[in-house]
Amino acid sequence: MNVESAGGWGDISPDAFMRLFVTQMQHQDPTQPMDTNQMMAQLAQLSTVQQLDAMSANFASAFRTEQMGLARDLVGSTIRYYDNGALYTGVVDEATVQNDTIGVTVNETFIPLDNIRGISATASEATETVQ
After folding, report:
1. Which of 8, 34, 59, 124 lies 20 to 30 Å from 74 when distance is taken between CA atoms?
2. For 75-130, CATH number?
């Protein structure tokens, strides 16, 4: 059975692939065994897919950490943001996560990072600049 003809690697998990692969090995015709090159190519493809999945998960985790750092750095800053279609200005009270979305809280209102349209200096930075 050619796994690629069944819809591609995106449609099969590594565990399912291994079950299919072992089943294929158990039920192959002993007089016409599977081509070794084809078998090795399938295993190499599985390994590549597993490595890409791991890299993707690592990048997603790093991106999430970066977003949390950005949200944390906004605490005390004045931001311009959209909420329900209107543009507002307010001071960030805290960095927070709501429904797996990273954002900030302004006056007890959760603002996703994607809704922020501008950032002004914090009050202490503005004072330091003037001195």
Report:
1. 59
2. 2.30.30
What is the DSSP code string of 62-73?
Answer: HHHHHHHHHHHH
Is residue 38 a contact partner of residue 21, using CB atoms and an 8 Å limit?
Answer: no
DSSP bridge pairs for 99? none
pLDDT tens digit sequence for 10-32: 567 777 877 887 888 788 777 77
Is-contact 104 92, C-beta < 8 A? yes
List, in sequence order, every residue forming a beta bridge with 78; answer none if it has no partner.
91, 120
Q: Are 60 and 77 in contact, with CB atoms under 8 Å apart?
A: no
| pTM of the predicted model over 0.85 | no
